[in-house]
Amino acid sequence: MKKVVGRQRIDTVFVLIIFCVFAVSVLMVLMLGASIYQNMTEISREEQDEHTVLSYIRTKVRNNDENAMFSVGDFRGLPALYYEEEFYGTYFRTYIYHYNGWVFELFSEVGIDFYPEDGVAIMPLNDLSFEELEYGLIRIFAGTRSLTLYPRSSASAIVLYPNDTEEVIIG
Length: 171
Known about the structure:
By secondary structure, the protein is of the alpha+beta class. It has one domain (44-170). The protein has one helix and nine strands. It has one helix spanning 2-64; strands at 70-75, 78-87, 90-99, 102-109, 120-124, 128-132, 138-142, 145-150, 166-170. The strands form two sheets. It has a five-stranded antiparallel sheet, covered by helices on one side. Strands 6-7-8-9 form a four-stranded mixed sheet, covered by helices on one side. Strand 7 and strand 8 (145-150) form a beta hairpin. The protein is rod-shaped. The N and C termini lie far apart (94 Å).
């Protein structure tokens, strides 16, 4: 009888050890899956934010490029896209720029000093920069994506051949 009781204890301990190993394995797989899902969601959100910012800027250019000439410059040391408009004899300038991880827009009268934090925060984004090319083209870089705009107010006509990560909008 003693041998049977001892053997039952060993069998019970062995079953408990196997159950614990199985439970720990399931827990590790669940944690790994949750981590992968979180990383994929973050990457997808960043790509969507990049696309949204480029669409926002494209819309701003489309809505204002007949009456205003777009330029790339700097706003208080930050790269910016800007355009000027005249309302009843007063000139105003709109800046779109990146500051402290956010895309900002600032609408102000020309000649009045403002600071980057005075603008309206549009949305968070890791990186935004602008490049003015020849023929009136403007290239916007938002993270891993880029967009080349050819405002209708530009006088020249050209054809562009984009790569896989770049959109080109003409006219």
